[in-house]
Design goal:
Shape: extended
Largest sheet: none
Number of helices: 6
Distance between the termini: 91 Å
Structural class: mainly alpha
Helix content: over 70%
Length: 165
């Protein structure tokens, strides 16, 4: 094992990066194959992933690949939203570990930058997650709810108006 590490240390930085990228890619491919086999086994742990596979299948089959422009656009937007959610999760994890690494090394400027980035990505995550249930606005006062609703849903100008006397 020490001989392998000494050989890798003797390589140029470019070749080391290339080797690291190849190992990362191969391990990612192997992990994907293991995950696919585990999903097919019917394990309770992977039930969520099986459901996501079904949603992805229907989304692409009936919406993204539709000949109807509206359905195709809607399907593409939903697929991008799901992809963006996963990307945000990945960024949150990466920023969290960069922050922890910076704390360990004492790089306080990076700690502050990681903290601000992490909070910005958390806010972005809050914008793309589903908050359509009433429990998500139970803390908002009724006056603020009414103000925002009137701004977001202005009265229809074509609707008949009832004049007050």
């Amino acid at each position: 094992m020490d001989g392998i590490l000494e050989h890798i240390n003797g390589l140029s930085p470019f070749v080391q990066g290339l080797l690291g990228s190849a190992v990362f890619a191969i391990s990612s491919i192997l992990l994907q194959r293991v995950m696919n086999r585990a999903k097919k086994s019917g394990s309770e742990i992977f039930r969520v992933f099986v459901r996501l596979d079904m949603v992805r299948h229907i989304l692409h089959k009936d919406y993204v690949n539709s000949r109807d422009l509206q359905r195709s656009s809607y399907g593409s937007a939903v697929a991008m939203l799901f992809a963006f959610r996963w990307m945000l999760g990945g960024f949150l994890i990466a920023i969290f570990f960069i922050g922890v690494h910076s704390i360990i090394n004492g790089n306080w400027l990076f700690v502050a930058a990681s903290w601000f980035c992490f909070n910005c990505f958390l806010e972005a995550h809050n914008w793309v997650k589903d908050t359509s249930h009433e429990k998500h606005i139970s803390h908002v006062p009724d006056e603020v709810q009414a103000d925002v609703i009137t701004v977001m849903y202005p009265p229809d100008p074509a609707a008949p108006r009832i004049e007050k006397e």
